[in-house]
Amino acid sequence: MQEIVDVLRELPHVDSPAAASAETVAADVARGHRALIRRRRNRIAGSSLVVAAVAAMVVGVTQFGPAGSRPTAAGESGTTTQQAPRIQLVAFTGTQPAGFRVDTVPADWQVISSNRNEFVVVPPGADSSSALPMVVGSQGAEAEGSSVSYDGRIAVTLQGMSRLPSETPVTKVSVNGRDGLLGHAKGGVIWLIFSDAAGKKVLVQVPTSVGLTTDQVVSFAQGITVTSDAHSVGG
Predict the structure, then answer these.
(1) One-character DSSP codes across 116-154
(2) d(CA 43, CA 203)
(3) Which site from 27, 93, 108, 220 is most exposed, i.e. has the minimal number of CB atoms within 10 Å?
């Protein structure tokens, strides 16, 4: 009611010494109601415009970021985490090893040992020295006859006396239609043991840090052929 009184006070009045008639009062009240309705509509419309403007600002900041910023393109540094591309297997074009012929190797990896005992490749930029024999047996036996370390490297040998630790979960896989066992040895290394067409047991060692998937490890193993010159590490 107070709003109507305020509106009536703001309406222009015609000075008249005579008392207002009932019709005049009714007309004034009607005008006051209409003015009040207009005021409320204008207030609501103004509030809606403010809300819409704020929403538009929020959307703009969310999509485009603060002033002067722009989306980070692939390969550029920024706050968005970019996943590293998965390593790819490519055709091996080097001199084939005497003991183990291979079809594929990880892209840009370097062969550091290829003889009748082993086939070993290292990632780009890794130390390619041929020292430090690797402990390959699950019981801690050293790899006698090996001249390189398998640490951080992919290696192919005959299984010999090496066994998967009894406590490791083992996954059965198929390598060229023959059964294989895939598990983890000590030191964060994936082991894949399988038989070739002649019944020789082959051991593939791949560090988990390389990033090959299980399917890629199996694919790599499917491209391995054991020659008649292959010897087990240690004789």
Answers:
(1) SS-EEEE-TTS-----S--B-STT--B-TT--S--TTSE
(2) 80
(3) 93
205-226: per-residue pLDDT in tens?
999 988 899 999 999 999 999 9
Contacts of 18 (CB under 8 A, 6+ apart): none
CA-based torsion, 148, 150, 156, 162: positive or negative = positive
Is 0.85 topped by the overall pTM?
no
Ordered DSSP codes for 167-214? TS--EEEEETTEEEEEEEETTTEEEEEEE-TTS-EEEEEEEGGG---H
The string of pLDDT tens digits covering residues 20-60 is 567 766 776 677 667 667 777 766 656 565 555 545 554 45
Residue found under tokens 């030191």? 187
